[in-house]
Amino acid sequence: QVQLVESGGGLVQAGGSLRLSCAASGRTFSDYAIRWFRQAPGKEREFVSHISSSGGVRSYTDSVKGRFTISRDNAKNTVYLQMNSLKPEDTAVYYCAAGRYGTWGYWGQGTQVTVSS
């Protein structure tokens, strides 16, 4: 079992920044890749960013490239999502998920990000 807890969400004006954290406990954190997803009201959950177990591979959905940065600190069992130049369309509940071999079996409860225009 892996337990995930997101934090760092909040209300910010457009152009502002937030840093989300995904803290893990349970099984060996460094064995798992981590993804961030988000779900806006009335929309399906969408992929935001991915980081491999070692941190050596990172990817982003096109709409956040150049604005968001994913990182991890395996010593602290934590993954971060630095979000800069936030836009109103970034408003959503953000979730982190842990997975291996393409299966994302562990999810956090989510943290709300609201960007005002």
Walkthrough of the structure:
- With 117 residues, the protein is mainly beta.
- 0% of the residues lie in helices and 57% in strands.
- The chain has strands at 2-7, 10-13, 18-26, 33-39, 46-51, 58-60, 68-73, 78-83, 92-100, 103-107, 111-116.
- Strands 2, 4, 5, 6, 9, 10 and 11 form a 7-stranded mixed beta sheet that branches.
- It is globular.
- The protein starts with a strand and ends with a strand.
State the shape.
Answer: globular
Order of helices and strands: EEEEEEEEEEE
Low-confidence stretches: none
The radius of gyration over CA amounts to: 13 Å
Largest sheet geometry: 7 strands, mixed
DSSP, total strands: 11
Individual helix count: 0
**Beta-strand proportion:** over 45%
Structural class by SSE content? mainly beta
Report how far the terminal alpha carbons are from each other.
40 Å
Helix content: under 10%
- Which oligomerization state do the chains in this entry correspond to? single chain
Residue-averaged pLDDT, rounded? 96
Could you give a quick summary of the protein structure above?
The strands form 2 sheets. Strands 2, 4, 5, 6, 9, 10 and 11 form a 7-stranded mixed β-sheet that branches. The protein has a 4-stranded antiparallel β-sheet with strand order 1-3-8-7, with no helix packed on it.
Secondary-structure map:
Blueprint: E1 2-7, E2 10-13, E3 18-26, E4 33-39, E5 46-51, E6 58-60, E7 68-73, E8 78-83, E9 92-100, E10 103-107, E11 111-116
Parallel strand pairs: 2-11
Antiparallel strand pairs: 1-3, 3-8, 4-5, 4-9, 5-6, 7-8, 9-10, 9-11
